[in-house]
Amino acid sequence: MLLQDGVPDEIRVAPRAGAAPCPVHNASGWFVSCATVRLRSTGWMYSMAWLLAILFLTPSLVSADVSKEGELSDGKLYSVEIRESRYLPSTGESPDDGGRWGIDGGFPRTSTSSFRVTIDGNELSVPRKLFADLSSVVEAIVSLAEDGVRVTVRGGDGSGSYEATFAFREDAIERIVKSGEAPESIWERTTIHYALARHFD
Question: What 8-state DSSP symbol labels residue 130?
């Protein structure tokens, strides 16, 4: 039977026969036994334990990885690996200031922390400046173009979706970003020449 405050009637007894009850009353004026107090205390501790576990596990729960291997049309083997980690806003940072891709308001849950592209065992250099502003990566597609290798990264969702194409040429890396909802328009174009790339690593 449940009383007014939802506490079962059967736990309103002393924990053992002959034991003196605890001098505790709840907000409704009902007498609460030692057993009731211990039950509520145990439930509170379990709730706190779950909360702490979620907080400690949050970085791994929101992190994401995209990894892909395959063969290009010229027979060369490729691999691409994109790693994301939990995004931690800096002090005083404004939410959604237009400096990040993959969100539509607020702060991103993740940001790209590593971007590795390998062709026939040779890793291509990708300056952090070109990938650190990408978040919520969904997939990566590697293809061969006339001027070199291209890696197309898609991420976000809805109005926050985007497509970033990385063109690896002999003398430079170019990144073109388009909105997922308006792929016909280029929203951002960045070109870094290899002579300068080391300054952005």
Answer: G
Rounded Cα distance, 161 and 173, in Å:
22
Render pLDDT for 131-183 as a digit per residue (tens, 0 to 9): 999 999 999 999 999 889 999 999 998 888 999 999 999 889 999 999 888 88
| In contact, 59 and 106? CB cutoff 8 Å | no
Residues composing the chain: 201
Q: What is the pLDDT of residues 51-90, one digit of tens each?
A: 444 444 444 444 458 899 999 999 999 999 999 999 888 8
AA letter at 99: G
What confidence category does residue 94 fall into, taking pLDDT thresholds of 50, 70 and 90? Answer: confident
Collapsing DSSP to helix, strand or coil, 104 comes out as: coil
Q: What is the C-alpha to C-alpha distance for residues 77 and 69, in angstroms, rounded to an integer? A: 8
Closest CA to 143 of 83, 82, 68: 68
Q: pTM of the full predicted structure?
A: 0.65
Domain boundaries, the chain: 9-59, 63-200
Contacts 24+ apart (CB under 8 A), 58-63: 58/86, 59/85, 59/86, 62/86, 62/109, 62/110, 63/110
Give the closest residue to 164 by CA, choosing from 138, 145, 146. Answer: 138
| CA dist list (Å): 127 to 48, 81, 111, 135 | 42, 14, 15, 16
